[in-house]
Each structure stands twice: as C-alpha cells, then as structure tokens.
Amino acid sequence: MKEQLEQLQVEALEEIKQASTQKALNDVRIKYLGKKGPMTEVLRGMGKLSAEERPIIGELANTVRTTIQSTLDARIEEVKAIELEEKLKAETLDVTLPGRTLTPGHSHLLQQIIDEMEDLFVGLGYTIAEGPEVETDLYNFEMLNLPKDHPARDMQDSFYITEETLLRTHTSPVQARTMLEANGKPIRIICPGKVYRRDEDDATHSHQFMQIEGLVVDESISMADLKGTLEVFVKQLFGETREIRLRPSFFPFTEPSVEVDISCFKCGGKGCNVCKGTGWIEILGGGMVHPHVLEMAGYDSSKVSGFAFGIGVERMAMLKHGVDDIRHFYTNDLRFIEQF
Ligand code: DAH
Q1: Measuring from each residue's beta carbon to the nearest atom of ligand 1, which residues come in under 6 Å?
Q2: What gap in Å lies between CA 253 and CA 315, rounded to an integer?
Q3: How far is the CA of 310 from the centre of ligand 1 (A)?
Q4: Is the peptide bond before 256 cis (omega within 30 degrees of 0)?
C-alpha cells in the first residue's frame, strides 16, 4: 500500500507538470483527489490493515494528498499568470500610434463682445438679467409705453405666435420684468440676448440679432450718470481716446431719449469711410426711464428715477472689426470665425 501511494504521488506530480491549462489541471485534480479517484480507494482499503500499520499508512496518505494538493495550487497560479501574459500580448494596444487630434475652438466674436461687456458692467456693480425670447405683448410693448395702436410698433414688426405672444423685438421687455420683480428696490442690470424682427435680410439687417440692454433705477439717477456710464464702456471697448456725443431722439419708454455717437476710431474725428465723413458713429439708444414706465412697474416716479440703454451687439462687432456684412456672423464660415 505504501508503494501504491508513493507511485500515485509520482504519477500525479508528473501529470501536474505536464498540464498547461487551468482546465487540464482541474482534470488532474478530479482524477487523483476526486471521490472516485485512487486516493479514495486507498483510504477505503485501510480497514483491512493491522492496528500498527493503520496510522503509518494514514499519515502517508495525508502527506501524499497535501503534496498533490499544494503542487496543484502552485501550478494553477503559474498557469494563470502565463494565460494572463498571453492574453495581454494578444490584446496589446500600440500607444505610440498618433490619436485623432481635436482642434480647440474659441468663443464666437459676438460672445466675446458680450463677455467683455458683462465683465465691465459686473465690475461696476451690475448683475446679469435674462428674459424669455418668446415674449408677451404686455412686456414687449405695453409695459414700455407702446400701447396697442402706437405707431412706433411699426418699426418693430415681428413674428407673432398668437395675438398676444411674439418673438421679442428687443431686450427692453427685461426692463419691465426686472422692475416688477425688484418690487420697488434699486436696480442695476444688463441683459444680453437674442431679438427678432421681420426685416428683409441684407448686409446690415438680420431677422435675428443680439442686443445688450442696460437699466439702472435708484434715487436721484440723472442723465449725467447715463453719460458717465456710457463713456466708461465706450473707452473700454473702442479705446481710451474715444469721446461720446448725445443727440436728442425718441423712444416711447425713455424721456428724454438720446442717440449716442462715438468719435470715429478710424480717423479720430476727421471724417473717413467708416464714419461717412462726419467724424461720428452712432452706436446706441438710451435715455431716462419714462415716469409712466416706472409707475406701471410699481415705482414712485416722484422718488426714484432711472436710465436705460440698448446696444446692438453685431453693430459693435462690425464697427470694431470692420466687418462689412452682418450675415458673416451666422454662416459659420471658419475663414471668418477664425479671424477673431
Ligand atoms: N429697444 C430699443 C430698440 O430696440 C433700443 C433702446 C433704446 C433700448 C433706448 C433702451 C433705450 O433701453 O433706453 O430699438
């Protein structure tokens, strides 16, 4: 029986050595250590042994079993490592292959102008307001002193969705919304955003464009505050040496109303093709908030006053960079976009 066990061990260890896959090793385990294997058979035969022989053979059988078991375990680890190695080799990625390069983009020129304006006005203590592009007749017109039959509505003919809703024709409705929300408190906001008008598109007109609205409401706000504020922003955007000029104008929601010109940044005021020989370029509309507009939004116009302005973003970009057609901003031609 002793020889039988030793023989078994020799055979098992040899087979373990030969096996090179986890499956083959598992077969060896079942073959030698399984319930129907030779080890079980040997142990079953132990009953026939004498009392002296039994513990000796029992111990030997145990040693053989643990030797086979531990050799198997060690070999399994070896084979696993080899299999992993082979798998890794087969699946190797060539990390030196060049990848697909992504060209980093940049903000659109219009967004750059808006960002610059926002930075400037936030620095002056303003906050950024927003309003819906689908607007009601009430905010787009009526709360701004443009009742239903007002002739000034003609200049802002728009895309109507229903009788009472339309795509906003300017960012000015955000004035009314902000005032109602502020509930009598002081206001300092700018609001950049898209606006729409039923225009024939040409080099200087587009049915969709962008504006930046400004509104300040507080005690003793005067035209001097408006002028000072506009001067700061014009110098920031168009250069330190720019002057501004206020001309009387008309908007239903401001009284008095002004149109604002800047001294031509190309010729410095002498007259050239950019300023059409006048030395001045018109850049925005503004004025003192009409008392009626303040009252409609719940302010006491005998106690507070305000100023407002509206700037065309495309117009500023065109002036600043000599862009000759507004449609360049929207056609996404990289030859244009990459210049800024
Ligand atoms: N909403 C006017 C427009 O689109 C521009 C404007 C003029 C805005 C005067 C203002 C303002 O806030 O005070 O033509």
Answers
A1: 170, 172, 213, 251, 254, 285-287, 308-310
A2: 22
A3: 4
A4: yes
Ligand 1 atom closest to 211 (CA): 4
Give pLDDT, residue 143: 97
Query: pTM of whole model > 0.90?
Result: no
Predicted local distance difference test score (pLDDT) of residue 310:
97
Q: What pLDDT is stored for residue 311 in this prediction? A: 96
List of the chain residues with pLDDT < 50? none
The alpha carbon of 322 and the centre of ligand 1 are apart by a number of angstroms equal to 24
